[in-house]
Every structure is written in C-alpha cells, then in structure tokens.
Amino acid sequence: MDSLLLTYMEKLQKHTINRDEPVISIEGLYKSFEHLDVLQGIDFTLYKGENVAVLGKSGTGKSVLIKIIVGLLKPDSGSVIALGKHVDKLKRKELDELRLRIGFSFQNSALYDGMNVYQNLAFPLEMNKKNLSKKQLDTAVESVLDAVGLLNKINQMPSDLSGGQRKRIGIARTLILQPEIMLYDEPTAGLDPITSTEIIDLINNVQHRFNTSSIIITHDLTCAKNTSDRIAMLHKGKFIKVGTFDEVFDTEEVHLKEFYNYNFIQ
Amino acid sequence: MKKSKRSKIIFGKRVDVFFSDVYEACRFVLLFFKEGFIRPFHFKEIVHQTYEVGIKSLPLITLTGFIVGMVFTKQARPSLEDFGATSWLPSLMGIAIIKALGPLVTALICAGKVGSSIGAELGSMKVTEQIEAMEVSSTNPFKYLVVTRIWATTISVTILVFYCSFVGLMGSYSNVHAEDTSSILTFFQNAFSTITFLDVFSMVFKSVIYGFTIGAVGCFKGYNATQGTRGVGKAANQAVVLSMFLIFIEEVLVVQVAHWIRYF
Description:
Chain A has 266 residues and is an alpha/beta fold.
C-alpha cells in the first residue's frame, strides 16, 4: 500500500484535459427546499484533468450542487453521473465506493474537533483500508501532510490551527484517499489575501501533481481566475454562462458585469 | 384572522411537529437496531466511549450514591425507632437502594452529565459539517457516532448502577455503624435478605433501558441539531430534559410490570 501511495504521491503528471472523458455529467438537475427553488435545470460536464470554478452570489445553490454530486443531497429531478455511476441511483455500499474516488473539501474544513491532525488524516484510511499497518498509516499521513506543507503540525489539535492551516489539513484529509475528483467548497472564504494565494497555489499543485479534476465553488474571482480552466456562472439556479474567464466576463450581461465589478482582480 | 382560528392553526402545527418528531425518533431507534448488530462494530470506539461515559462519571456517582445512602438512612432511622424496628434499617435500605434509588440516581446523573455531553458533541459535529465530512469519506456516521455511543451508555450505565448501589449501601452502612456497632458483613447480609432474583433482574433490566434511553435521546437530539450554535445548546438541553422524562416513565412502567410478575 505504501509503495502504491508513494508512487501516487510522487508522480508528477502533466496537466492535460481530456475532452473525450467526462468525469461528471449533469443533466436537467432540479432541487428545491420547501418553497425555495434552488437549482432550476443545471446541465454541466466536467472533463478529466479539468478545473471548473462555479461562481455565483451566496444562496444561489453552489454548495447544494456539489453536495448532490457527492450524494449528500438527493435531487428532485435530473441525473448526475460521476465516474460513470448514476449517483442518485446507487445503493449505500456503491455510493461509499464512489465517494472514495471523490474528495470533498468543506467550507469550514470540517476537521474532527476531538482528533489531532494525525488522527484526522488517518481516520478515513483506518475506516476504509482495514489491513494497513501502523507504519503504512504513518507514511501515508506524513506524505499528504508534506504535500500540503504542514508536516510540522502533525500532533496539533484543529483548534490550535489557523484558518488557512485548517483548510490545508482539510484538503490533505481528502487527498489521503487518492481521489480522482476534488470538490472544493469556498476554499478561500474568510482567508486573508496571502493565505488565499497559498490555497490557490495548493489547488493548482493538487491538480498538477495528482491529475485530479476539480469543481471549485467560490465567489472569489481571484481564486476562480487562477485555479480554473473554465468558469460556470450560476444565477437563480441556472448556469447563465460557461467558458474561460475571459469568455465569461467579456460581456455586457448585467449580472456578470455586476459580479465582476464587485470583485478585485489580481 | 380571528384569534381562535389562529390558535387552532398554531395548535395544529404543534401537534404536527410532535408527531413528526415521534416518527423520526422511532425511525432513529429502528435504525440503531438495524445497524447495531451488523459489522463493522467499531469495538475500539465503543471501548473509548464507555470509558468516557463510565470512568468520567465515577466521581459524581460515588459522591451522590454515598450521600443518598447516608442521608436516606439518617432520615429513615427516627421513623423506625418509633416502632422499635431499627434492626430493619439494613433491609429497608437494601430494598430502597437496589430496587429504586441506585438505578434512578445513576440514570438521572448520567442523563444530566452524559446525555447533555452527547447532545452537545454530536450537535456541534452536525452544525460544523463534521458528520457530512465523515459521510463523504465513506464512513457511516450513524454507525460510528450513534451506534457506538448508544452501546457505550447502555453498558456503562448498567455497570454504574451496580457501583452506585454498592456505594449507596456503603453510605448507609457508615450511618448505621456510627449509631450502632454492627459489622459490615451483618449489614450486607441483612440488606440482601429481602432481595429476590426478580429484584436484581428488574434492576439490571431498568439499567439497560435507562442507558439505552440516555444514549439514544442524546444522539437523536445531537444528530438532528439545526440552527447553528443555538441549536447545539438546544440539543444538549433537550437531551437532558427528554431523557429524564422518559426515565421516570420507564421507572413507573418497569416497577408496575415487576409488581404484576411478582403477584402473578
């Protein structure tokens, strides 16, 4: 296992987008909560090796979208195919198997309060790879911590970490399961510009190093511009424009203009 | 809208909420029985939680149990003296502590200490998305967090009831010994002279039910917490109130059933 993991951790693959290989396909996705229509017909494809930023104001359903992708929420209608599997039709065991291939980085990191950094990272491995030795576990944890540059924090409790460090540990915890797809929920929210830049670098590093495909949920244009190959603008439950950063914002569309003007672009 | 009509609507909504809560609680308990007896059992976590619940409650149980036994003996003595029946004091205390006080005192202390802590811990995990984080890393959070805690409270409350009863009898003996000079052996022989198998069985049965109730209510309230940090406090508070309420109801039911069995 450790040799496999080391190979995985150390291989530097060239960042290439394979347009013939969709890893996530969404068609006609609808989701509402009581009387609030959140998603109203989402069609979207994420290709292998691609980073897509989903932009939109708060409350437009960005987080709901990725929670549906990973099976935390059920859609009202429409289909979500992730890595060839219909997410909403999977049984518990099949969904768990799929989730091992999809990493989810939470907005507030969602580190387990009662566990230190080592235990936080070892937990998903202990739960899913039962026959790992202590040495293999240690190697895996140290490798991902090294990848996010926080090896020296291995014995600290989450409460002792800064916001940026917590985000990095949260990302490390998803990387330890070697996902093919990464879903980032507001990775730079609440961080200062310097720490945001570090997280942006980390997202790019993860894509280049592990050849992951990613969806980055954000309302931070700096983050979107610097991490994504394409941008999808969500407004009132629909994607109003999808394309490269320049394609999306080179427009007179009112909502896009408004969103652009309120952000500071580095 | 007329005031009476508005009141009817509010009452209707409350009834609706009450029954949907009962439905959810039943589903939660059924899910425990579905998940609680199949692999993986997470023994390490059960042992850890049993330690958290059991060992950490020991000081409080010891103090309370001892004081209850001592004070109850002191209060009972004058009444028995009036009838010249102070020699019955150990038997009376045996009945009182083993049949009622031991299980009830332990359960109420654990409901306050453990139930609130489980409610707050799971509630905080819920509102900070830690439970969802567990789920997306392919770990069944219900099994890992809920099932293990319910097993832990059931096991530890049962053990604590025996311990509390013993400490209560020791408290009682300390008072008896201060007033009369009786040996500890005689005291315990007299205390257990009126205790039957049914009494011990009913004590164990009650302990298991109380432990299960404390764990299940704490987990249910915490696992379904909403409204951020306010919801966490609410979950902890409701866990204590509801489990105490249920413990009293269960006490009445078990005593009644034991009574029927005894005289059947």
